[in-house]
Amino acid sequence: MTKITTVVFDVGKVLFEWDLRHLFAKLIADKAELEYFVTHVVTPEWHFQHDAGRPLAEMTAERIALYPKYENEIDAYRTRFNETIPGPVTGSLEIVHELAARAVPLFAITNFGAEFWEMFRPTQPIFDHFGDIVVSGVEKMIKPDPDIYALALRRFGLKPGEAIFIDDNHDNVVSARANGFAAHHFTDAEKLRRALMDLNLLD
């Protein structure tokens, strides 16, 4: 049995909170209108097109044509995306620091748009601890596609079974397990800490 030596994180909702409402609540005061906006106009499903590699300019121009009333809000999505990320998930960054202090190799696989990653990555020095990060929007492949896990193994220099992958999305966890990783379905940092202790990666 291969020993797990390496930890591979997802980013959104594992290391950092994310919700479109954090930005758009600043722009749309009426709660019912806000819910309409994030379920019909700038929705997670539409946003995921950028995660998969679609250019922002193309996406937003198309959306403004469909919803001209919301041109300013759709443009804010493009320019103020970091405001959809209010801060770290409680306890998660502490785990990263502890793993780094123990010289545990750290990597990440994230569904994140390339242009948004360029905006977000420089604001977070926690990623300096990571040897490499596979970003879906850069690679134009998205979890749970098996190809992104194969790419990660090659890029990270890992053999199947050497790393545990941590993700909040169950489908991504299932695919990771089928494609060379042990995996942990993230619900909170304390349960993750216990799982890493069981693997002797944390004290």
From TrEMBL:
Top enzyme category: hydrolase
- Pfam families (alphabetical): HAD_2
Q: Is Lipid metabolism given among the entry's keywords?
A: no
Q: Identify the EC number(s).
A: 3.8.1.2
Name of the protein described by the UniProt record: 2-haloacid dehalogenase
> Which GO molecular function annotations are given, in alphabetical order?
(S)-2-haloacid dehalogenase activity
PANTHER family reported in the protein's UniProt record: ALPHA-D-GLUCOSE 1-PHOSPHATE PHOSPHATASE, FLAVIN MONONUCLEOTIDE HYDROLASE 1, CHLOROPLATIC
Identify the keywords attached in UniProt to this record, alphabetized: Hydrolase
Superkingdom classification of source: Bacteria
Q: Which InterPro entries does the record match to this protein?
A: HAD-like_sf (IPR036412), HAD-SF_hydro_IA (IPR006439), HAD_2 (IPR041492), HAD_sf (IPR023214), PGP-like_dom2 (IPR023198)
Keyword Transport among record annotations: no
